[in-house]
Design goal:
With about 450 residues, the protein is of the alpha/beta class. The protein is built from 21 helices and eight strands. It is flat and about 70 Å long.
Length: about 450
């Protein structure tokens, strides 16, 4: 996410910070480079022009150029302007004072609208609400089947009919059913098209008139860049959307859509899709995205993901095993499973400040997790709790059982012992300045 843009900006800011004194010409050179980086990232031309102009007005004042760290001051201005461009604060879904809250999902084919509808329903369910999905895409039968499958997977009811041909009637029926079933959130998956046409818009307007949704959320593919922005502008002009969900953000190294779409439409990005899995939909936080673009990481999102994955009782149990120096291969296996459930490892590491630079040109191989799990699974229960009994013959047996080599077993045991040693040091408050492991970690 934003990888290529972040890399270019990092190079520009390094030059700025390397100058003890900044002149107006230095700022202009940097802004010219920032302008080019944004245009190459497929950010809307008008948005770039206004963005650069706003930064220049604030960056060439005496209080900046004559400060002790002018380079850092300019970076702070860029950060503040990025936050403004992206929307300043996270804007949540507006809930109706009289349930049910009706959310209408709109967008083109291929944007991930049906899957995103299910992901959003999952979020509401985790918050203790009672969502219901409505399969109102009657043009594409596969969309109905897809939503039914996702609903079963999440244990969320799906209202559908293969006899009703009018989607607005289907939606009215869904509202009646939701009131009888005590459902407080209705998420309507509407029909898409390969491109915007009059027929689609008329259908959406009819549904909007009949059900009066509290939110109309446009689902747009971030990887299509300015095409997504143009499409969002058209949808907004014709049906007045209330917010945007950008999908496939994990595959968008440029970020042009995210940096342009709010400015062009005037509507907030409310969620971003960061992967295909059903739990990979995140609230959009402008300040965190701005930090990510500027290479400052995203620790808050990492903390939230960890808190969702590791419950408090388990964290306490693991603390106890560490205090008693009894962290076993069994514990290691369970923790690796949970870390994998948090999402792709590269995404997690990129949230740590400075880690993107440290991992530059390094491919994080997630197959190593699978290999480690296979090795631990091939151990006997006694071997998992007492590594010291794993002699040569046991190592050969474990290697055969896991489809690995003895050297793989040796490496894992060595890494395990080094991990235990490091944990022991941290739990005692060892390391420089009494550093301790942060609470976001499961030990």
């Amino acid at each position: 996410m934003f990888e290529s843009l972040a890399e270019k900006l990092d190079g520009i800011f390094k030059k700025l910070k390397g100058k003890g004194i900044l002149k107006e010409e230095d700022v202009d050179v940097a802004l010219k480079e920032i302008r080019m980086a944004l245009l190459e990232a497929d950010v809307n031309f008008k948005v770039v022009k206004e963005f650069i102009q706003s930064i220049r007005e604030k960056a060439i004042g005496k209080e900046v150029l004559e400060s002790l760290s002018p380079g850092q001051q300019v970076i702070k201005i860029v950060y503040d302007e990025l936050c403004l461009l992206l929307g300043e604060t996270n804007e949540r879904i507006q809930l109706s004072p009289n349930p049910p809250t009706i959310i209408m999902m709109v967008g083109l084919h291929g944007s991930g609208k049906t899957t995103t509808s299910a992901k959003l329903a999952r979020i509401f369910k985790k918050e203790g609400r009672r969502p219901m999905l409505v399969a109102a895409d009657l043009q594409r039968p596969a969309a109905i089947d897809q939503l039914i499958t996702l609903g079963k997977q999440l244990d969320i009811p799906v209202h559908f009919s293969k006899e009703v041909k009018n989607p607005s009637i289907l939606c009215e029926d869904a509202i009646k059913r939701s009131k009888l079933d005590g459902r407080d959130i209705i998420i309507i998956d509407t029909a898409g098209r390969l491109h915007i046409d009059a027929g689609l818009m008329e259908q959406l307007k009819e549904i909007r008139t009949k059900v009066n949704p509290k939110e109309i959320l446009l689902v747009a593919d971030a990887m299509t860049g300015q095409d997504a922005v143009t499409m969002a502008k058209s949808f907004n002009e014709q049906i007045n959307i209330s917010g945007i969900i950008l999908t496939k953000m994990d595959g968008d190294a440029r970020g042009g859509a995210a940096l342009s779409i709010r400015n062009v439409t005037g509507k907030p990005i409310k969620f971003i899709g960061v992967g295909e899995k059903i739990d990979m939909l995140e609230p959009f936080h402008p300040d965190r995205i701005a930090k990510k673009i500027l290479g400052m990481g995203d620790i808050l999102t990492l903390i939230e993901q960890a808190q969702q994955t590791f419950d408090q009782k388990e964290a306490e149990r693991l603390r106890k095993t560490l205090l008693e120096d009894s962290f076993t291969f069994e514990d290691l296996r369970e923790q690796l499973k949970k870390i994998r459930n948090m999402g792709p490892l590269e995404n997690l590491l990129s949230m740590i400040p400075g880690m993107n630079k440290a991992l530059k040109d390094t491919k994080v191989d997630e197959k190593e997790f699978v290999k480690i799990e296979a090795i631990i699974n091939s151990m006997t229960p006694l071997e998992r709790t007492n590594h010291s009994i794993i002699n040569g013959s046991r190592r050969r047996r474990i290697a055969m059982g896991s489809g690995t080599s003895v050297s793989d077993i040796n490496r894992l045991i060595k890494q395990y012992l080094e991990m235990k040693k490091m944990m022991k040091m941290f739990k005692k408050g060892g390391g420089k300045k009494g550093f301790r492991l942060p609470d976001i970690l499961p030990f």
